[in-house]
Amino acid sequence: ELAENIRDFTVAVSADAVQGCAALHFYGPAMAEVRSLAVDPSLKGAGIGKMLMEAVEAEAREFDLELLFAFTYVPGFFARSGYRQVDRSELPLKAWKDCLRCPKFQACDEIAVLKWLKPEAERALRASDPLDAALPLPVIRGN
Fold it and tell me: Is the dihedral of CA 32, 66, 81, 8 positive or negative?
């Protein structure tokens, strides 16, 4: 799977070591998932995670994406970058496509977060509702 998705990755390196990585995985022309954001634990607090987040967000803007989302165990980190916590039912069906292969699918403990890169796209979406009206993928809604 790594070889299949290697193009998605941004890697932070020093002269002699990998410091961290993050991936931007595209789901159609409007959105992408921030995946696999990780930093060497000995470098926590050095700003590497923030640098990686800024790099993947810059790439997303280069591709004119409207929306980024992630599943995380560290929602506070994402909140500092402008992401808000959402119920996973607010996310497109994509989440379920990849999640179906996960052994934790029935008891997922990751937290869904979302960030609109284009506020006007969010406003248009809220005016038109439902979520899938603005995104090129179907959405699963909870009760």
Answer: positive
